[in-house]
Specification:
Strand content: 25-35%
Number of helices: 5
Number of strands: 48
Structural class: mainly beta
Distance between the termini: 102 Å
Mean pLDDT: 90
Shape: elongated
Radius of gyration: 34 Å
Strand order of the largest sheet: 1-8-6-4-3-2
Length: 625
């Protein structure tokens, strides 16, 4: 509604009760930048109501912020100002930055973050000639209950009133032509949005903001609760239209054919929604942080679910992707704390990076048998040929045997599978990609393939419970960071094939007490500190072939360790318990010196050892002559 004899629209947004001050302090500025001298130090921190006339620049705005209780860097001040009337003032360019380092005033602009975090401001009247209200201009003004916006304003920036503010209603003046993303996000008291009927760009329907043609839904009042029905004329839900709303159900009409980014994001009470059949894409962050969302019905035309669409939808327990969907973007379901089951339809052709990362309860990823790109084996995601294992659900528990068809374990395939305790792979696996088992904190043992030639970068990094690793017989390279942080690992046997140990390969493996090198030529690495950082070499015994002792003692990377020569001619012992197949070998001090060794391959000569059956845990003392 229009104010009589003025060019501004008074927005009565709340009943504002100010502490008694006989009348506002009125100051007329003739030269921008002199407001502080006109008010003086004795009134700066005691004034609660202020009216300013004349030109004001960045220096003056900074002074007003200090009177409002916030300094240039958001720090608290002693100011008590709560009611500010700038109707006869004019913001002009010049002066100091009013917040942080690079926020300077421009003519007739309430600039970005100009009154940001002034959380004691209760009422403000903007200058009559204001053209623009910038991004986050009233960010976190939590007590703001009244504002007068002049008809001269042409644009309102995104997140303009972002806060749990006291605003209960607002009216958009006639001159506004552009409104940014989520201008009223988080205004949990806001029940209604009104628009001056003379406005040619926007209108209000049932208290919500729409474009003039009523085809674009711009913003819902965040204080509305319960169910909300979007008008049947709407075809487009704008970016952030329902951001931080308090609704539990939103009904979209069949006319809706597209959604904006983050359209329903950060809506903590939203439980269910149906996506209309005309919608072809769920764009970036559509439902991010909708923590109560349990029920989503997809339309028949949906082709793409874009990045981060369902991030942190913590109540979502299962999701079925329809056959129409072809593309699923990166991190779409990341951090969905309750997600246990995902069913991928026949049409899915591409999956982005980290689609299911940090879904700690995810037990199975199932794929429609008619899908031509992907498949699943016992709830584990693979390519169609089942030669590449793509993703093991992070909620997988206990031991896991890699299927015989698998030849490659993809990058981050087992990352953060914290409940996995052991993994064993057959000799068909020839490739393990970087970070394949990174962060598997519960993994205690792993048996690698004999055809594997490289343990890739950070393949087992952060597997802090790993106690047993069988590298197989063909590994030539242990790449950078491969076992970094495996602090429980006491023993590693390096096959004769090993040629190179990379930088940080065994960094922070502080539990190491012994290594066995079967190769006569020392594996190349820069230095002990380079590949075994934080490992005390004097506490580690390295067993090497008897005829290679001098070579190891001369090698820069190995000479700091305790080098012990062994005769590796081999003795097969008939007095080992016949029923035992795989055994762990300990010395008489209880230190593990070999793990998961076939009983017929024991080659520890001239030693008394303790053998432990891997299957039963039974032990036996054996003398190797």
């Amino acid at each position: 509604m229009r104010a009589t004899g003025a060019v501004c629209a008074l927005l009565v947004l709340a009943c504002v009760c100010l502490e008694a001050q006989a009348s506002p302090l009125v100051v007329t500025v003739s030269k921008a930048g002199t407001l502080s001298a006109l008010i003086g130090p004795e009134k700066k921190n005691t004034t609660t109501q202020l009216k300013v006339a004349g030109p004001i620049n960045g220096t003056d705005v900074l002074y007003l912020r200090e009177m409002l209780g916030r300094g240039q860097y958001g720090e608290k001040t002693e100011g008590q100002l709560r009611d500010l009337d700038l109707s006869e003032a004019r913001i002009v360019a010049g002066g100091d930055s009013y917040i942080y380092y690079n926020s300077f005033t421009a003519d007739d602009v309430v600039g970005e973050n100009m009154f940001g975090e002034c959380d004691q401001l209760e009422r403000i009247v903007l200058p009559a000639g204001t053209k623009q209200i910038g991004r986050s201009a009233f960010y976190r003004c939590s007590k703001l209950g009244g504002i007068t916006i002049p008809d001269s304003v042409e644009s309102i920036g995104e997140n303009c009133f972002f806060c749990d503010s006291a605003l209960e209603s607002i009216s958009i003046p006639s001159g506004v032509q552009e409104i940014g993303l989520s201008p009223l996000a988080g205004c949990v008291s806001l029940k209604s949005i009104a628009v001056d009927p003379a406005n040619t760009h926007y209108c209000a329907v049932d208290g919500a903001l729409l474009n003039k043609a009523k085809t674009e839904f711009v913003n819902v009042p965040c204080g509305r609760t319960g169910d909300f029905v979007v008008p049947s004329t709407v075809t487009f839900i704008a970016d952030g239209a329902f951001n931080q709303c308090m609704l539990s159900k939103i009904t979209l009409p069949a006319s809706v054919d597209s959604l904006g980014e983050a359209a329903f994001s950060n809506s903590p009470l939203l439980k269910s929604i149906n996506i209309p059949d005309k919608v072809k894409e769920l764009p970036y962050g559509t439902f991010v942080w909708c923590e109560s969302l349990t029920d989503v019905t997809f339309g028949s035309s949906l082709k793409t679910i874009d990045e981060m669409a369902f991030v942190a939808c913590n109540a979502l327990q299962s999701i079925t992707i329809p056959n129409s969907v072809k593309n699923i973007g990166s991190r779409v379901f990341s951090n969905c704390a309750s997600l246990a089951t995902v069913n991928l339809g026949a049409g899915v052709e591409s999956l982005g990076q980290d689609v299911f990362i940090t879904c700690k309860k995810l037990k199975e990823i199932n794929v429609d048998g008619n899908n031509s790109t992907y498949s699943s084996i016992d709830g584990v995601l693979c390519d169609k040929s089942q030669h590449t294992l793509l993703k093991c659900p992070e909620g997988r528990e206990g031991s896991y045997s890699v299927p015989a068809s698998v030849q490659k374990i993809d990058e981050e395939a087992f990352t953060r599978c914290t409940y996995l305790t052991s993994v064993e792979m057959g000799d068909n696996v020839s490739t393990i990609m970087p970070s394949a088992f990174d962060g598997c904190k519960g993994l205690t043992s792993a048996k690698l393939s004999n055809t594997l030639t490289q343990v890739s970068e950070y393949a087992f990094s952060g597997c802090e419970s790993l106690k047993s690793i069988d590298l197989g017989s063909g590994v030539k390279t242990i790449a950078n960071g491969a076992f970094s942080g495996c602090k429980a690992l006491p023993y590693v046997q390096f096959p004769a094939s090993l040629e190179t140990i990379g930088t940080s390969a065994f960094d922070y493996c502080t539990g190491l007490t012994s290594l066995r090198c079967l190769g006569e030529t020392p594996a190349a690495c820069k230095s002990c500190d380079d590949s075994f950082y934080k490992v005390d070499p004097k506490a580690v015994t390295v067993y090497v072939p008897l005829n290679a002792v001098e070579a190891y003692k001369a090698a820069d990377a190995w000479k700091e360790f305790n080098i012990v020569g062994e005769n590796y001619t081999g003795v097969s012992r008939v007095d080992v318990e016949p029923s035992w197949q795989l055994v762990d070998v300990y010395d008489l001090n209880g230190r593990l010196i070999a793990s998961r060794v076939n009983r017929n391959s024991l080659i520890l000569d001239n030693r008394v050892c303790i053998l432990k059956d891997v299957a039963t845990g039974a032990t036996q003392k054996v003398v190797f002559p």
